Amino acid sequence: MKLADKMYSLGTETAFDVLAEVVKLQEQGKNIISFAIGEPDFDSPENIKQAGIEAIKNNHTHYNPSAGLLEVRKALAKYIERTRGIEVSPLEVVITPGAKPIIFYGLLATINPGDEVIYPNPGFPIYESMINYVGGVAVPLALREEKEFSFRPEELETKINAKTKMIILNSPHNPTGGMLSTEDLQQIARIAIENDLWVMADEVYSRIIYDQAFESIISIPGMKERTILIEGMSKTYAMTGWRIGYGVAPEIVVNAIARLCTNSISCTATFTQLAALEAVTGPQEDTTKMVQEFKERKDLIVKGLNEIEGISCLNPKGAFYVYPNVTKACQNKGFKNAKELQEFLLHESGVAVLPQTSFGMRNEGETEEYIRLSFATSKENIIEGLKRIKKGLERNE
C-alpha cells in the first residue's frame, strides 16, 4: 500500500523535529535550554480563559456556521477597522481553527495548478509546503540582511511573469523579526495592482512590535480588494492551544474558504470563538505587559549575541525571534554550515536553536549562515543559554 502522490509534495515544520530531539535528550537527563519553538511562554489571560469556561458551562458546544459566529465576525471586523483604518464587513471575515488554515484554504481558493506564488525566503515553511501541495509553483524571494531582512522591490519585479498569481507577505516576519517599511508596502501594492495579483498578508505578529508602528498593505487604497489578510489569537493573546484564527478577504474568497471549512472541519469550536470575542473586546493590559517583557528579552538577547565572537545580530523590529549571522562562528569552529552549528550547540552546549534550512532553501548566491532563536522564554534561560553558546563557540579546541 502507498500514499497518494500529493503527500510527497507536503513539507513540515522542522522546529517540531528539533523539539522532539530536545524532549528525547531531556528524557535522558540532559539539561537543554530551548530557543527553538515560536510560542509565547505566557498563559492565556484570565478573562479569556473565563470566557471560554463560561461558554462551555452555558452549553455553547454545538455546531455553528462554517464561516464563524456572526457576533464574533462583527467584532473582528471592528478590530480590523480600528487597527488597519479601513471599512470591513463581517461578511469579509472567516474564522478557522488557528491562523494556519487561512494559508491552506486561501491558496486552495485562488491558486490553480501551475500558477506561480512568490513567498519570502527565509520564511515560515508552511508557505512553500502549501503552495506545492495545491499544485502551484513556489517562487522564493530573498530577504536580505543588508535590507534589515526585507527585499528589494526591483528584485520582486523580476519574479513577475504571466503565470504569477500571488505574493505572500509576512510582517513582522518569522524567522527574522524584520518588518516591511512604508515604502516597501507601497511598492508591493503598486506591483500587485499593475499585475492584477493576489496578496496574502500574514500579520499574526502585528501586535508584537517594538520600535516602529505597524503598517498593513490592506490599508493602501486598492489593496483591500486583492488581499487575504491572516490574523489570529495565538501570538497576541498567548492562545496557541486554543486554535483560533481568522482571515479578512473579499466576500468571494471568504465564501470559498467557508465552503472548504464545511468540507473539512465543519466549523471552528463555538467556545473558542467566544473566548476570542473576549480577547479582542476585553482588557488589553496582559498583551501590553507581554510585549514589554518581550522587548526587554529582545534587548538582552541581541546584546548578548553581539558579544559572542563570530556572531552578529540585527535588532528585530517585531515578533519574538532573532536571526543572527553565524558565518564567522561556523568558520571559526570548522563547521560547513549552520546545521552543523545547530547540532553542536544542541549536543555539546545544551542549547536548542534552529538552522536557516528550517526556513527554506538557501537563496541563489547566498553564502552567509544564520540561526533562529526564539526569545519566548525567560530572561534566566536567555542568560544561561547565551553563556553556554559563548562558552561553546569561544573555547579553545
From TrEMBL:
Any GO molecular function: transaminase activity
InterPro entries reported in the protein's UniProt record: Aminotransferase_I/II_large, AspAT/PAT-like, NHTrfase_class1_PyrdxlP-BS, PyrdxlP-dep_Trfase, PyrdxlP-dep_Trfase_major, PyrdxlP-dep_Trfase_small
Cofactor: pyridoxal 5'-phosphate
Alphabetically ordered keywords of this record: Aminotransferase, Pyridoxal phosphate, Transferase
Pfam families assigned to the protein according to its UniProt record, in alphabetical order: Aminotran_1_2 (PF00155)
Record EC number: 2.6.1.-
Regions crossing the membrane: none
Limits of the Aminotransferase class I/classII large domain: 31-389
A biological process term (GO) from this entry: amino acid metabolic process
Family: Belongs to the class-I pyridoxal-phosphate-dependent aminotransferase family.
PANTHER family named among the record's database cross-references: ASPARTATE AMINOTRANSFERASE
Name by which UniProt lists this protein: Aminotransferase
Organism: Desulfonispora thiosulfatigenes DSM 11270
